[in-house]
Predict the structure of CBS domain-containing protein.
Amino acid sequence: MNYRVKEIMTRNPITYNVPSSVSDVIRVLIKNNVTGIPLVGRDGKYAGVITRRDIFYNPNETQTALVMRKANTVKEDDYVEEAAKEITIQGKRHLVVTNDNDEVTGILTPQNFLNIIQEKFGERKVKEVMTYNAFPIWEESPLSVALIAMKLSQIFSFPVLNAEAKFVGLITDRDIFDKVKLSSTEVLSEAGIADDEDPWSWEGIRNVFTYIIEKSNIRVPNMPVRDVMVKNPVVVYLSSTIGETVKLMSQGNYNQVPVLSGHGDIYGMLYDVELLKVFND
């Protein structure tokens, strides 16, 4: 069966206006616990897309128009293979769907494709689709060093190794955020994006934590990575099937999983974006 975009897309996504300020966009991301949104102009038509990663890459820009991407879109009647190819080309996780009037009607992320991938390509092996680099970090590294490494590498999930170079865990920017002992009001005030109108979602704040740290005087605790990392995370192996992997990622809502060799050594990370390559092989 040839699926079309309209069968898998998330309909009526949250949008925001441009021109606007980046701080306004961050408020929308936090309050709705999303990591990216389409932007529309004064005429109500698609203007671009902005994600937390775009904001992380441009922490000193204040205007949305200077941070957003005027990325290509797809149509509801396009085949999912075309949409998967476009996400792969862009190298970003959010793809906007528009109609013939250039109005936003939906959005796609790799998660929208997982069921089809499991159905059509489930027997293929993980080692056939891995391409992205992994950035390992030592378990005794301070959290402040881990954050700097994330900022410089633009990779926000690290496999953690011990002194014998054995894989012992996983750490993400969101795990570090959980150790910041401040109220949501303090965190957002420090970053200059506080708002008294609505309660803030801690889950939403976690999504933009790296930006908040960049823009504020907040300091992370003086503790090693091993005290924060996820011990015994969900992993897959080079020999695992894509079907098995997709099932684990869907159940845990994971965007990435560590990949181990047959001997249990870290081989790399598998990201959901990489899985979309199966549509184009």
